[in-house]
Amino acid sequence: MATWSPEALERIADADELRIAPRRGDGTLREPTTIWVVRDGDDLYIRSWRGTAGTWWNTAHTHRAGHISAGGVEADVTFTPVDDAAVNDRVDGAYRVKYGRYSGYVEPMVAEQARATTLRLTARS
Fold first, then answer.
1. Pair type for strands 119-123 and 73-81
2. 17-40 pLDDT, tens per residue?
3. How far is the C-alpha of 116 from the C-alpha of 125, rounded, in Å?
């Protein structure tokens, strides 16, 4: 697995929105969906506000690969589920800081339903 370059990490993290296209089982990409992305240290995280009912999330969780676009960066990625409570707490904080101005939307993103869908984005080499 590759790591993010400092420039790519910053550009993606600073973007308000990320376009995500998970790979299906046959290797094709789903149509991109616009979602939020947050940073914790050198890692990027995403969640489904619909919880496990999110269609894009189910594809990403099942096949673990896809493509993202944010902040002018295009990258193939690996999706890794996160079940670490400390990481999820930090991701909650990152969502509140970055998207707090959208109070009606950020609270569902830090609720248990969304926390259960936390995925780490890792650049693919």
1. antiparallel
2. 999 999 999 999 999 999 999 999
3. 27
The pLDDT tens digits for 56-87 are: 999 999 999 999 999 999 999 999 999 999 99
Lookup: tokens for 16: 């308000």
All structural domains of the chain, each given as residue ranges with its CATH number in brackets, are 6-123 (2.30.110.10)
Q: Is the pTM of this model over 0.85?
A: yes
DSSP 106: H
d(CA 30, CA 101) in angstroms, rounded, equals: 30
CA angle, corner 66, sides to 103 and 81, nearest 5?
60
